Amino acid sequence: MSQTQSLQLNIGTRKINVTPDQSAERKDGKLTGLFYLTENDENRGTLRFDKQSWENKNTGDLSYVELEAIAEAIMTEYK
Fold first, then answer.
1. How far apart, in Å, are the Cα atoms of 44 and each of 26, 27, 51, 52, 79?
2. Distance CA 28, CA 40 (A)
3. Which CA distances in Å does 66 have to 27, 41, 63?
4. What pLDDT shows up at residue 1?
5. Closest Cα to residue 71, out of 45, 44, 48?
6. What stretches of 21-79 adopt beta strand conformation (E)?
7. How many CA atoms lie less than 13 Å away from 70 in the CB half-sphere?
């Protein structure tokens, strides 16, 4: 993946840090891999992308709308 740095996102009033795992990559235009979510150094779970969709794990108090916004930002930024 060309960009391996963390991504800082403002989602509403929240500041979410997204960090890609070493497995994160883009193949044939499709994003795959694991991304860790943190907020104020607290774990907010993960988003895993496969070639068709994304799924969340242990994302606590993040709403589905917030997760959709985070997923969209990840797909846009990590090219």
1. 23, 27, 23, 23, 23
2. 34
3. 26, 18, 5
4. 54
5. 48
6. 25-27, 30-39, 42-49, 54-57
7. 34
Q: Which residue in 68, 15, 67, 26 sits closest to 4, CA to CA?
A: 26
Cα–Cα distance measured from residue 18 to residue 74, given in angstroms and rounded to the nearest whole number: 8
What are the tens digits of pLDDT across the range 34-58?
Answer: 999 999 989 999 999 988 788 998 8
Strands 30-39 and 7-11: unpaired
HSE at residue 52, side-chain half, CA atoms within 13 A, is 0
Predicted TM-score (pTM) of this structure: 0.86
Q: CB–CB of 49/64 below 8 Å?
A: no
